[in-house]
Protein 1
Amino acid sequence: MITINPYIYFDGNCEEAFNFYESVFRKEISHINKYKDVPQSERGIFQEPDEKIMHATLPLSKEVMLNGSDNSLAYKETNTYKTFSLIIHADSRQEVDRLFNELSQNGQIKVPAGLTFWGAYYGQCIDQFGINWKITLAS
């Protein structure tokens, strides 16, 4: 089974927004990482203040997750992401690889599919139509 969920980019107020959504939807944030959590060796593209949000997840149902982050300055400068991406949670690495390879064909690879420092199997690309995709192994 594949699920597709929204990934919203904020201009520095992701934590405030997710705290608001948490109260509105009466759900609890399941995951939150700040840019200060990024290992020094991986800080190359991240120039954000340490307290800004690198990634947050708010489960709205068993299948639907609202995801978000404070938009990376590196992405803003290149106009890569405006306000959203779609994130796919796949059941296997093979499915992540297949989806990533097909979606990135004639597009642009932002993060090659592979194991990340936060322990996820993950890739990020922009398809040939300009849609931002994040593809990860469902946990």
Protein 2
Amino acid sequence: MMMKAATYHGFGKALDVLKIEHLAIPRPESKQIVVKMATSGMNPSDTKLRSGTSRALTDSWQIPGSDGAGTIHEMGDGVTSFQIGQRVWVFNAAFLRPNGTAAEYCLLEEWMVVPLSDDLSFQEGACLGIPVMTAHRCLFSDGDLQGKTVLVAGGAGVVANYAIQLAKWGGATVITTVSSEAKAQHAKLAGADFVLNYKIEDIVKRVNEITDDQGVDRVIEVDFGANLHLNAQILKPGGTSVMYAFVAPPTLPLPIGALMSKNITLKFTLIYTITPEQREKIISDINQWLAVKKPFFAIAQEYSLEQIADSHLAIESGNKIGHIIINI
């Protein structure tokens, strides 16, 4: 039996290398699951891999998409916690493996598959992978947030928007930065307590006003190099700055004196390479979060599988607010 899949066989521009092919439906081996995909979530990591700016291809071909949602189609030996037809969301599908989610069927390891509750749509399920898991890891890798103050940089970004929501769920006061009124409204919908426009406001002064000159406990940072000096000023002694992305490598020298004098910790996060124990904790907390609070899912645009190149262009434009979803 055959399936449709978006593929590319070499790096390049989206319109040049992405195409739709008919491939054999994969068969699961031990501890593997084949999911009939309903949706695929596109992330910046997908466009970076396709363009050749992140790493080499795992195989001679690649189906893009690490996140998605659908139903269990077939299970290999040793899979006992799922049933055929069960609704699920998936993650990590395209990391160091060619079988991504932008296809009618996706072959996954059992640990990449999570039950999807009936009150969430497949489109919403496709949002729960890299962005939500990254936000959780950045926030909670140093313990709970009850009573703490967190600054989330770029609060209209996909990861940052979930970081706002999860930080509020964890009991924190949340400050976030944005660059426009439209992005400010998006951050407010996520629950941010204070939304600061870094284009027109003095962020250090405003953070000091909000925190009575105490500073923030944690910074969740989307552009480590650009904001390193700022974060050294607004973090309280013993605070932590957690980076999950950067636009360009930081310009040296680091503000070593300011960082050292406050005993500040700099941390780096890549959700794909965390330990199984860390992953299990994240998924457990996400399930608890979903059980008590319906998240604010922002879906910017939806595309068909045949429009896979357009979905990559939408991410690369930098103009979207929210997720890019492929409806299979």
Protein 3
Amino acid sequence: MLAGLYSKFGPAKDVLEITDIAIQEPAKGQVRVKLMTSGVNPSDYKMRLGSRPLTHAFQIPGSDGAGTVDAVGEGVTNFNIGQRVWVFNAAYHRPLGTSAQYTVVEDWMVQPLPDQLNDAQGACLGIPVMTAYQCLFADGPIKGQTIYVVGGAGVVANYAIQLAKWGGAKVITSVSSDDKAQVAKLAGADEIIHYRTQDVVKEILQLTNNRGVDRVIEVDFGANLNTDAQILRPGGICVMYAVVKQPELPLPVMTLMVKNITYKFTMVYSISEIERHNVLTGISRWLKETTPIFNIAARFDLENIVQAHELVESGKKIGHVILNIPH
């Protein structure tokens, strides 16, 4: 099978290559998926640059993808050959990611793809949507809450807006440009703050009558630590799912203590089995009850995986980058 892979860390153009490798047979409890699309996420380029050690001779990047079930291992009874599915976690401590014609994954990493979604949309459902759902609902229902989503045009943040509105919350978000404001508005944001020209703390306190927000969905914990401490209501929760740069954290301890603030850290790859069940069940309901917006910035053929990685790494895109897998 054709696969995009690397065997050492470095820039995309130096280490990524398209090569032909053997198709693996699924073992007990595993599913082989014939992939049509693969989602390229920031974690893919971070892994390629060495954020985690290589655990095998090579690494096929890509945790998310969509396609059809091609074969099943012993004991797998909940999938049929030819069934359309989406895949997540394929590259987490595993060599067979989704930037290839086939992947072999554990059966719990596979989910049925609803008929109304195409393969590109299916490749969007893994890390971004699961992360957004976990950040929002890990502590229970959010109906009636006011939630601040940082950077509302970002991929995870945009789904957080959509999911929060579905969950009955009021959403305030921040953006850096008019184009991004439009993306956040289409997702359903109630209030949009231009953080480069407006005072985020002042605006949010005015919008909440000085009460503060119930929950912050945070993409850059280190940069926004003091802002979040000021805008959270007493007993509020800040959930961080990413860091732009590894921060030094001089915590505003007294502010946090006085307000009984909770800070949480989320990595969707390693959530518990119960949490994963709740996330996947919730996403299934969301897909049935709404018409989600999938912002796809660019699509590349597998042979152009270098350009796909470079675009994601540049940060100069609004939405997903998807690989088309040839057969």
Protein 4
Amino acid sequence: MDNPLPAREQIINGLITKSNIKSTVFDTVLEVFNHLKELLGEISNDLNDALDEKKEKEEKTLSKRVKLGYSDRGKFEAELRFADDILVFSMHQDVFQFDRSHAIWKNPYTKSNPFNSYCGIINVYNFLYDSIKYDRDDDLGYLVARIFVNKEKAFFVEGKRQLRRRISDFGKVTLDNKELTDFVESAMLYSMSFDLLVPPFDLVKMSSVEQINAKIENAKMKTGKRMGFEYRSDDVLDSDDK
């Protein structure tokens, strides 16, 4: 059925509607991200207290690098340091819509109101601690998880071992402190579960004088936990989400 309104009025109405929706989504995700920052600080303090208690109880010696640390990197970034790892939490400043082939369109919550599908994204990247500490700009970090949040704090999660809230759950629960805690802890556990691998010999068998002078370990060899690692969102999709 054709829209009876003149084209320009349709354009104006569409602009107002989408602008309001996207503005609400952005404000909601920013609120969630600020809460996430507070939570990261709490997790850091709580785990440090638990480490100190375990150290005293069992009379163990712990390296300073075992200690956790939280840093606010600005309005849209934060980091959590633990042992040899750093997780960088980054809120994207744009609001996104999904293509028509995406599984989200099979969700009843989205079918009932297509505007429910507009989401902001918080990404989580895993880097080696030394990559940041020594400014090794060529070192690699990996996306290990991301969370999609809409205007009503309905959400779903993609990522390694992020199995709690899938697309089929979108609209059934809202994002709260417990869900955020599970999201962070799952990202930490995954990051701790795999180690730095030696790069292939042929990748580092030659070096220029310039690279030697710039320290070969920093300029020549790109360090990352997995050579050829590929992030696949379908690692978390169940049969209902495919």
